[in-house]
């Protein structure tokens, strides 16, 4: 089965000038490999501010000019270069943004959902489609003429989702769709995203909320210090013995229902020569300090660790 | 599109009217006191070169009230002003209100034309520079603005006069009517023809600030999340500039333009001087040089109102056009 989206060894770095004219490359995403199939929700789970959104931006081709990208992104088997990105974005690949700040503050929401049109005819057609989708999500006609600042949190979220769906995309990228929402809205968002899967769409869910990832996704990729360290199915996350990476284990153990076992340590900011988790790892080997483990497959699980087999014995 | 809440508008305008009244009283009093404390003596200015005796001088002083205390004089001036009279111009020998009406009309057309030119050209250049940030077009426009901003108005006027009137001979060197013709007999085209060069000079000065402002605003809009999202949705570059860029910078740009009335007024004084254009600017200079105190004070008051109205319109645009502030938030 052809994958909808394949990201292979994607690295994103930024060139900055620090202290005068010293050029400095900050690596934000390193060697990221992930894929999303049709009717599948894949979550990328990582801490806030770790650069997860840049994955979304690079798929859509909207990274800032001082970024440097290596690796390959494929959509339906075709290499997704900048030309193809520009052709597909807004049509086959759509972004569900984080917040109402992603809407023009001075434009009525219905017009934003409709977007840019070449002529009156296209506008009229899209207007019908916009109305359809808005009603589907329970937004009545009075919402059409509202400005973004007039929307409540729940309404804004629905508008953003509808806006992404106007073009009837195959792949949706939800970038932190649940920040600061109340429990009810979070639940609705999860349901809405799951519904997209029922319609055969692929969803890449980028989030820092482990609960949202567990309730929504089919597979979860753990993002640590710029690396994907493990991609595992959501079933395996129910049992700490079924996940392989020591960081993932620590993450699961820290959940309230598993007794809040917190682990000390922070994510390194600099790219280390060895494993990014070396500093905090309970099962580290000598070679982990200076050698970088590759993302390898083990029983259908993608894992970036030299000693994952020793993890269950050691703990 | 714009729904106006009448009650809110009345409250807003009432509040602004009180502000204007207070401002006028303070400005009128302060400028009057300053002139009283200056070496200008209105009696001497009125008499000019005529030789009079000390007794006659004293009678004149008593008639005009220059022998009263400063407090009485200020009060007298303010109460006369409240009755609607601004006094009698010493050099034009007609009531100040009449002089100002006539001169201000001429200047108003000059200012309005150059204000509109500078708004349109400045906004256009600003959008272009902001959209093409970092390219040679942007750099050229920026350099042009820096040069304009640091150049005195009268000097630009002189350069334009030299090039277009003296060397090329395309435009007359000054005056609003051809020499030897009565102002009543001037045709519209003659009048327009003579307006072009002063209006261009005055607008050139206004262009720089509005361009730089627009450019800055557009660049910050381009870095906003909503432009990023518009890009992610596949909108084209110029589509984004048009739909989101201009939409979000037009209001602040218009506001800034209305708030530039003070610079406009200052500029017109210089430009009218260079082009010998008989407007309020020339009248101001003449009043200052020839100690025409009533006219000078009249101009001060009129210019205060003019600048105040500009700011008032700017405020109103924000209150009533911007949907974020327009809402029925009070009561």
Briefly characterize the structure.
The complex is a heterodimer of chains A (315) and B (331). In chain A, 30% of the residues lie in helices and 25% in strands.
Overview of this protein structure:
The complex is a heterodimer of chains A (315) and B (331). Chain A has helices at 52-60, 82-88, 109-114, 120-136, 141-144, 153-165, 183-198, 210-216, 246-253, 308-314, and strands at residues 5-18, 22-36, 41-45, 67-75, 78-79, 93-96, 171-175, 202-207, 219-224, 227-233, 296-298, 301-303. Chain A is built from ten helices and twelve strands. The longest helix of chain A has 17 residues, at 120-136. The mean pLDDT of chain A is 83. Chain A is α/β, with parallel strands linked by helices and 315 residues long. The two termini of chain A are 38 Å apart. Helix content of chain A is 30%, strand content 25%. Chain B has 331 residues and is mainly α. Chain B has 14 helices and no strands. Chain B has helices at 6-37, 42-47, 54-64, 70-82, 96-131, 136-149, 153-167, 188-222, 225-232, 237-259, 261-275, 280-289, 293-320, 323-326. In chain B, helix 1 (6-37) runs antiparallel to helix 13. Chain B starts with 5 loop residues before the first helix and ends in a 5-residue tail after the last helix. The mean pLDDT of chain B is 82. Classes of the chains: A alpha/beta (315), B mainly alpha (331). The A-B interface holds A 57, 60, 62, 86, 88-91, 94-95, 97, 99, 101-107, 115-116, 147, 149-150, 163, 167 and B 224-226, 228-236, 239, 243-244, 247-248, 251, 322-324, 327.
Structural descriptors:
heterodimer, A: 315 residues, alpha/beta, 12 strands, 25% strand, B: 331 residues, mainly alpha, 0% strand, globular
